[in-house]
Amino acid sequence: MKISYHGHSVVKITTEGKTILIDPFINGNSLTDLNVEDEKPDVILLTHAHNDHVGDTVELAQKNEATVVAPVELANYLGTFGLDTVGMNLGGAKKFDFGTVKYTKAFHSSSYTSDDGEVIYGGMPAGILFMGEGKTVYHAGDTELFGDMELIGKRNQIDVAFLPIGDFFTMGPEDAAYAAQLLNAKTVVPIHYNTFPPIKQDPQEFKKMVTGSDVRIMEAGNSFEL
């Protein structure tokens, strides 16, 4: 399994001959190294409906006939664009041919703003547990710190956790460091920072706060094998 980070909250997983994109915010993302025209995902996983996470899902899915897995209300909305969607909800898991996807809770908000300014309810925000090739990847989505992260960690042997550290819209570095402790992940990767002025952070300071997990600070395009 190959995992790469592409700025903001964009994560790519290559496994079982499939390419999975999580929260593919590409156009408008000043930190990403990706171009929509070059990406060929088989699957898109979404944590919630905010535009900086749904991103370029519609164009990518239409162009590549990708399956979109999302919280059910968001999946229903995206289905109106003719996309192949799978709507899931918190606590639910599904086995696919590329691995298993399970949705966990996140504490945030979730709505999509259309080009004409309409605000569409996106259902509950979520985190994602992805399990494949005997490995478990946790993408926390946008969230504050919450105590059930300890339960998520106890119920799942997490190999790598992607945690937001930007503060302002999500938990900041101090809370994210405590989240890493609760999750007991082998490796932690900070995400959702430095994209916009309110979420400017120094990931090295976050790294200093984390105990018990390896912290991997990734630039856009960096990758590693699990």
Automatic annotation (TrEMBL):
Organism: Metaplanococcus flavidus
Residue ranges of the TM segments: none
One Pfam family of this chain: Lactamase_B_2
UniProt name for this protein: UPF0173 metal-dependent hydrolase ACFQ1X_03035
Coiled coil stretches, renumbered: none
Superkingdom of the source species: Bacteria
Residue ranges of domain Metallo-beta-lactamase in the record: 7-192
Entry's family note: Belongs to the UPF0173 family.
Keywords per UniProt: Hydrolase
GO molecular function term, any single one: hydrolase activity
